[in-house]
Amino acid sequence: MSGQQQFRYTQTPSKVLHLRNLPWECTEEELVELCKPFGKIVNTKCNVGANRNQAFVEFVDQNQAISMVSYYASSSEPAQVRGKTVYIQYSNRQEIVNNKSSGDVAGNVLLVTIEGVEAGDVSIDVIHLVFSAFGFVHKIATFEKAAGFQALIQFTDSDTASSARNALDGRSIPRYLLPEHVGSCHLRISYSAHTDLNIKFQSHRSRDYTNPYLPVNPSAIEGTMQPILGPDGKKKEPESNVLLASIENMQYAVTVDVLHTVFSAFGTVQKIAIFDKNGGMQALVQYPDVMIAAVAKEALEGHCIYDGGYCSQ
Fold first, then answer.
1. For position 165, which CATH number holds?
2. Non-local CB neighbours of 268 within 8 Å, separated by 6+ positions
3. What Gene3D superfamilies has UniProt attached to this entry (predicted)?
4. Is the CB of residue 115 less than 8 Å from the CB of residue 145?
């Protein structure tokens, strides 16, 4: 009886132990170092859970796992990794199966959690810039969940998505792409079960880069405002630091770089977003203040980007 009383666990003993509160990205070597005094480790599963601070360790024999749980249950010194107290309990599984969890099964859509930011701190254009370095991004959808600000990013195939995940997971978005008040933001990336995102319109929340005819939702685009009435009773465009430019008579390609060259002649251009609407092209150009935007609008409206009357604005 006395031997039984020291085990006050609701779980059935298992040769697989569940470890919690580990340091972020704890390595397999660190787990083995913690557990090897109690027996031989035959399998591990690291960095599981939403915060990647949990792991599973499988001993060759159940008695070895019981020995470890028993030791730390009665020891005055807790189990520690990198100075963090680690909580140990029996797993409800009897072995570690190497089948990958849904978040680890490679797919063409990534689920990205952007830590340390609010929804408005990282624009969809910045997300596109960062991830398109690894291949063509088909679609992006952003949203807010309990886990924070998140994005679904669809690539052509799982190989491209894997390249992006391997390169960016745990990294930070470059500081120069973030607002001044954001100290740092880290990317936590897993695979989504989605294979094709359903994007209904282009906005600052969602983009489909494969469908030029998808409608733009003006009310959802950052910086745009509803028209107001002027002194003459007619609708008047409110002054804003964001210009909406419609590009007509497009005989030559108009890229973000081309627009940046044209509009930066009047002041610092903070952001540019290009959309296709009803077969035509539109762009949002953001300046630091209303005055610069007003000067640029006055100078450029109705003028052409290229000689010969092509690509008028």
1. 3.30.70.330
2. 287, 288, 292
3. 3.30.70.330
4. no
Q: Beta strand pairing status for 87-90 and 16-20?
A: antiparallel
Q: Which range of residues forms the domain containing residue 69?
A: 16-90
DSSP state of 45: E
Q: Are 32 and 60 in contact (CB under 8 A)?
A: no
What are the backbone angles phi and psi of residue 292, rounded to the nearest 5°? -65, -40
Q: Does one domain contain both 142 and 192?
A: yes
Predicted local distance difference test score (pLDDT) of residue 252: 60
pLDDT tops 90 at residue 86:
yes
* Among 96, 91, 71, 84, CA closest to 21: 84
Backbone angles phi and psi of 253, in degrees to 5: -65, 135
User: Mean pLDDT: which of 157-161, 217-221, 278-282, 296-300 is highest?
Assistant: 157-161
What's the domain count of the chain? 3
What's the longest Cα–Cα distance across the chain?
96
pLDDT at 211 over 50: yes
From 111, 190, 198, select the one nearest 149 (Cα to Cα).
111
Q: How far apart are CA 297 and CA 313, in angstroms?
A: 10
pTM of the entire predicted model:
0.43
pLDDT over 80 (residue 109)? yes
